[in-house]
Amino acid sequence: MVKITKRMRKLREQINIHKEYDIIEALKILKELALSTFIESVDIAIQLGIDTRKANQNIRGSVILPHGIGRKINVAVFSEGENSRIAKNAGADVVGMEDLAQIIKKDDYDFDVIIASPDAMPLVSQLGHILGPKGLMPNPKIGTVTSDIGKAVTNAKLGQINYRNDKNGIIHTIVGKVDFDEWMLKENIETLLISIKKNQPAKSSGNFLKQIHISTTMGIGIKIHHNSLSLIN
Q: How far apart are CA 200 and CA 127, in angstroms?
């Protein structure tokens, strides 16, 4: 049996895990209870009404959060020639081909996003077993395999996040930092949810956004009332 720490017990005493909170109230609680020595991230878990056993119901996408995620995004780009120059001018941290592949094989990197031009994919595909499990494999569906390298790098640097559901139909991702104003976090969350709703599979039935929980890195989840969020775009 997992032992509950004294800190976690205190957190649970201050949050009603059965209640659906107004988003602003929930964010204020998170900020009040975030007492770590570092600035914690604010994370979201969204339970979707999908059947993950069916390929056409799985969700995958990307979105630029209006207020970013509160930290520098490290971007690597597989490209050469003119695309290499464009990537560097757009702010890519590392650009290369075989040399970049060697860095990844040695696991000597801290990239948040990896982008590739289409002509680089034969090389990148050889790294799928490394990048795939880490969620870093470039994919045209989320704009990380593209001929428009400059735009892709710019979007990543602006705070674009990629999301996908897990085998339980839940999307987990970061939506900012606990030192953001409540309204900034709310707008980030609403932007993410609107993007997810746009990707709702035609075959899914019933309630699509079933449950929404937010938490901090070291905190516990707070359930959010849907009516406190604006999900119309």
A: 30
196: helix, coil or strand?
Answer: helix
Place of tokens 């696991």: 107
Angstrom distance (rounded) from CA 174 to CA 69: 7
Sign (positive or negative) of CA dihedral 172, 174, 178, 184: negative
Count of helices and strands (H, E) across the chain: 8, 9
When pLDDT is cut at 50, 70 and 90, the band that residue 33 belongs to is confident
Q: Considering only CA atoms, which of 16, 59, 21 is closest in space to residue 226?
A: 21
Identity at 132, one-letter amino acid code: G
What are the residue ranges of helices labelled H in 48-181?
A: 82-90, 98-105, 121-124, 128-131, 149-157
Measured CA to CA, the distance from residue 37 to residue 229 in angstroms comes to 30
Of 135, 158, 181, the position where a domain reaches its end is 158
**How far apart, in whole angstroms, are the C-alpha atoms of residue 226 and residue 21?**
9
Q: Using one digit for the tens of pLDDT, what is the confidence trace for 34-64?
A: 877 889 999 999 999 999 999 899 998 889 9
**Are 84 and 146 part of one and the same domain?**
yes
Same domain, 147 and 32: no
The answer to whether 146 touches 120, Cβ cutoff 8 Å, is: no
Domain range for 180: 16-68+161-228
Q: Are residues 166 and 154 in the same domain?
A: no
pLDDT, tens digit (0-9, with 9 covering 90-100), for 68-123: 999 889 999 999 999 999 999 999 999 999 999 999 999 888 999 999 999 999 99
